[in-house]
Amino acid sequence: MDGLLKTLIKPDWDDNPKRSEILHAANLLQIGEFQLIQLAYKVWYNENLPEDKINKI
């Protein structure tokens, strides 16, 4: 709730700076953040993101 209040007062505040980096990278590539995660997983593990891991995201 504290994070929600801070976000309402200052919308550019982020409680998770890494999330901002992911959003920025996806924005630069002009793709969605979920697609960026899928592409990164494919590069790192040479396989598609498994269904069970998708459900955890």
Assembly annotation? single chain
Distance between the termini: 21 Å
Percent helix: over 70%
How many domains make up the coordinates?
A: 1
β-strand amount? under 5%
Report the major sheet.
none
Rg over CA atoms, rounded to whole Å, is 14 Å
Task: Give the rounded overall mean pLDDT.
Answer: 81
The helix/strand order is HHHH
Q: Can you count the beta strands? A: 0
Structural class: mainly alpha
Q: What overall geometry do the principal axes of the alpha carbons give?
A: elongated
How would you describe the overall organization of this protein?
By secondary structure, the protein is an all-alpha fold. The chain has four helices and no strands. It has one domain. It is elongated and about 40 Å long.
Write the layout of secondary structure elements.
Elements (H helix, E strand, L loop, with lengths): L1 H8 L7 H13 L3 H13 L5 H6 L1
Attribute tags:
mainly alpha, 70% helix, single chain, 57 residues, 4 helices
In summary, what is this structure?
By secondary structure, the protein is an all-alpha fold. The chain has one domain (14-56). The chain is built from 4 helices and no strands.
